[in-house]
Amino acid sequence: MTDTEQRLLELLKQRSFRRAPAGQPFTLASGAKSEYFIDGKMTAVSSEGAALIGEVLYDWTKDLNIDAIGGLQVGAIPLITAAVISYQRHGKPIEGFWVREAAKDHGTKKQIEGGLKPGMRVAILDDVFTKGGSALKATQAAREFGCEVVLVLALVDRLQGARALFREHNIDNYKRVFTIRQFGIDVPDDV
Fold this sequence. Notes:
Structural class: alpha/beta
Helix content: 25-40%
Strand content: 25-35%
Mean pLDDT: 90
Number of strands: 10
Oligomer: single chain
């Protein structure tokens, strides 16, 4: 683990990780109940968190020869912004994009916002994988648009089924910077 990753993990633990009060579990996007919650946005919207996230995402993707980096709104937007700023700072301009849950019903009626073009090689970002549904939606939208998804990457993997979902949908190159085990949660291996 790099020093930047170590500091990001500390910040995620401080700002984003929460345990539920006794008898009051959190409801996750998947509808499942959980005794803990990770809100990556709480770290991503802090100045230190954004800088660290940008550098970590740059380090994890810089050798992939990608043209764009994106993900599903709302959670991926601060990650995308941090990453494209880091790319620029390193002298490697890159496009950012995000995928809406559904196409707009007004204006340009786009589902994908940003400078994405068919044929681009892209990485898909998410703050947290649980079942993997958000990353899958963004991946499918990018593929349907004519892009090659070369990596699906999360800051944290809760180890609760994303691997199986990705395999089912031919997403072979997915990674995570951290797993929930690094937050002190003991879970069995993901299926």
